[in-house]
Design a protein that fits this description.
The protein has helices at about 10-30, 35-55, 125-135, and strands spanning about 1-5, 60, 65-70, 75-80, 85-90, 100-105, 115-120, 145. The protein is an alpha+beta fold. It has a domain at about 80-145. Helix 1 runs antiparallel to helix 2.
Length: about 150
């Protein structure tokens, strides 16, 4: 079962603002005669492609033995038996989320490598499905850290 990522206004403005700025830069570099034009065009198109891949390719999918969190070319496989807690969370931290309204998944011994933030559109349905796959998961109250 696949859940697309929710997208907040802040992340939308950031990603689409950078894309539009890069398109303007690309247009001006094509018009103006500058040295290394091909490198600039290829580099700019690569960054635009990466941002579009992240925007349209962020989702969370329940597989047989693990939760797949994908954000464009980046992904994380989280085995269900390692997930210890899931709680709603508000923060500008990103991880695998495109929204500040997210779910914090704890699945390791320390905070840095054992915490993943995700932002499925339907959080309640996602948490319900997660509870059926993770026996003994702790779902805590909502936390606000901005």
């Amino acid at each position: 079962m696949r859940y697309p990522s929710g997208k907040s206004i802040g992340f939308s403005i950031l990603i689409w603002g950078v894309i539009l700025m890069l398109i303007g830069f690309l247009a001006s570099s094509i018009i103006i005669s500058i040295q290394y034009k091909q490198i600039i065009i290829i580099g700019t198109l690569t960054v635009i492609s990466l941002l579009l891949w992240i925007w349209f390719g962020t989702y969370y999918e329940f597989r047989d033995k693990y939760l797949l969190a994908r954000m464009g070319p980046f992904f994380e496989r989280i085995p269900y038996e390692r997930i210890t807690s899931a709680k709603k969370f508000k923060s500008m931290a990103s991880s695998m989320a495109l929204s500040s309204d997210m779910i914090e998944l704890r699945h390791g011994r320390n905070y840095i490598t054992g915490t993943t933030y995700i932002s499925p559109i339907d959080k309640e349905e996602f948490l319900s499905e997660l509870k059926t796959r993770c026996s003994g998961i702790n779902t805590e109250a909502e936390s606000n850290q901005i």
